[in-house]
Amino acid sequence: MLARFAIALGIATSTALAIPQAANAQIQPQPWISVGRKNAETSFSVGARFFNFGAELGTIDGSTGVDLMRFISTPVVSPYLGLGLYSDNESVAFSGGVQIRPHGNFFLGVGYHSVRGANGQVGIKF
Questions:
Q1: Which of 49, 79, 84, 101 has a beta carbon 3.0–4.6 Å from 107's, enabling a disulfide?
Q2: Three-state secondary structure call for residue 105
Q3: What are phi and psi of 72, to 5 degrees?
Q4: Which residues, including other chains, have CB under 8 Å from residue 88's CB and lie 6 or more apart?
Q5: Residue 117's CB: how many other CB atoms inside 10 A?
Q6: Domains of the chain from N-terminus onward
Q7: Nearest C-alpha neighbor of 30 from the set 100, 119, 118, 110
Q8: pTM here?
Q9: Which helix (H) or strand (E) holds 59?
């Protein structure tokens, strides 16, 4: 009788632990900073990712804007696409790239932005 109870408890515990749950990295925002270059001008931005969405505030040569991004979440490499609006640009800005999120507290990214150019990102995972 005790053996059956132990087996049932083991199965119940294993099943409960196997149910997918949001990881801390998905629940807490993951901020990053970015530096880029386009046409001999340096760009800067700060952003944050929450679940599979992101927002970034960027600037280059007096033009400031906001981008909204959508990530495709995979365990290590997460590609993204984004759209944004900038003060000195009459058209919609677009961006794309990848963030590489290895084990640990930091992640790296590379991307291209139609207004701010090629950029590199460094971020923190909590």
A1: 101
A2: coil
A3: -100, 110
A4: 61, 62, 63
A5: 17
A6: 24-124 (2.40.160.20)
A7: 100
A8: 0.76
A9: strand 53-60
